[in-house]
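Homework help board

Subject: predicted structure for assignment chain

Our instructor gave us this sequence and asked us to write out the predicted structure in token form, then describe one feature. I got the tokens but I'm not sure how to describe them. Can anyone check?
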Amino acid sequence: MPGRRAMRRTALRWLAVVSLLALAASAEERPRYGGTLRVQLREPVYSLDPADGKDLTLARQRLAFLLFDRLTKIDDKGRVQPQLAVSWSPDTERRVWRFYLRGGVTFHDGTALASAHVVSLFANDPRWQVRAGNGTQVVVFECANPIADLPAVLAGARYSIVLRGAEGVQGTGPFKIAAWQPGRQLSLAANLDHFEGRPYLDAVEIVMGSTLREQLIDMRLGADDIVEVDLEQTRRLSAASQRVDAAAHNRLLALVFPSGAPATRELLRASLDRDSIHAAILRRSGAPAASLLPQWLTGYSLLFSGATDPARLQKLKTDAAKAKPLYLAYDPSEPALKAVAERIAVNARDVGLTVQVFAEKNPAANTRADVLLVTLPLGSANPTQALVQLAEAARLEQAELLAATGSEALYAAEQALLADSRLIPVAHLPAPAWLSTRVRNWKLAPDGRWKLEEVWVESNK
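My token output:
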């Protein structure tokens, strides 16, 4: 019997140890309020206003989702959810939409949100006329043409609800601006009065435009928590067992023609060897793309083909003999784009086109370029909203797209956007981020958005 009592005491001691370890592990994973998150963005951002400028880059979108809210939002499954609007209703033709605003919401400076703020933001868009409805919390959109899912469209970062004033822009989002040096640094403070609850973090410090060498030094010294990295860095960091999130294909690598002859655009599209670009240059990061939206978002992207009818291809080649050389601009801040641009030039030469490649920090602003090689953020887990954003970036007609209801109509709308070859998909890519061991509850939305309002950090010991 003494032996049995000894065994019982030993078992009780082990049970106590296991219970203490479980409690410690639970405490370790329990969300913690406070602390500062340190972030490095590869791209410098010079404006925080989502409506400022033509191109809303991935970095600007990520900041917009931290600072501002929208009438609606898209969840991770692509469904439209209420945000600043608690509900909405269309007429039978979907030309007139009424949005009912959430009460008690204030901008970061304390100004109460009212319908007049929304009306002033959307008043100059030719797709609709906007007016206040009955009361101060109703906004009415009267659309020139039917818009099947206006709530999905208005969930995009470009449609953020912003209050503009002498001190810059104010939002209602989970973080507010504490200090701002355009193109260099942004300090954010938690919005303690956000209607969805305050973030876990007290502050976020964001440094922009650092060189690759500066990034690597800061990562080694433990000076950062989240760092945007390129595709080559991702491979090296993953091989070194570093914590890298590159799971979601949330960017489109594409050629964009501001203008140019349709036949030349079509021939360049036909010349692309997407599989070779994906395997040899992108080292199988992402996926080759003949569609604008990836398979995970629509389920139908495999129906798109990059092949061209042989007889049509021969006619395009004949016509290309008279074509002038094309100047292709790419952004050198993404190292892989130079090699991709050069491979595109080789592919083009095989069909009789001459393409001259050059680097340009802001390709869209260069008037010498005939065609741009760019990465465009998908911007949404909702296929309608993602297509609208891509169409806006390429200045493409949206009437058919906005009227589309259901996957078949959306597929037809995407075919129409691709028809004139002004926007030519090359690959779907991730937007990788390196994470320090301090970062907890990290969530990368399918559209590439960082949910920093849900992140917390371990305290430095």
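Reply (TA_rk): Your tokens look well-formed. For the description, you could write something like this. Residues 17-27 have pLDDT under 50 and may be disordered. That's the kind of observation they're looking for.
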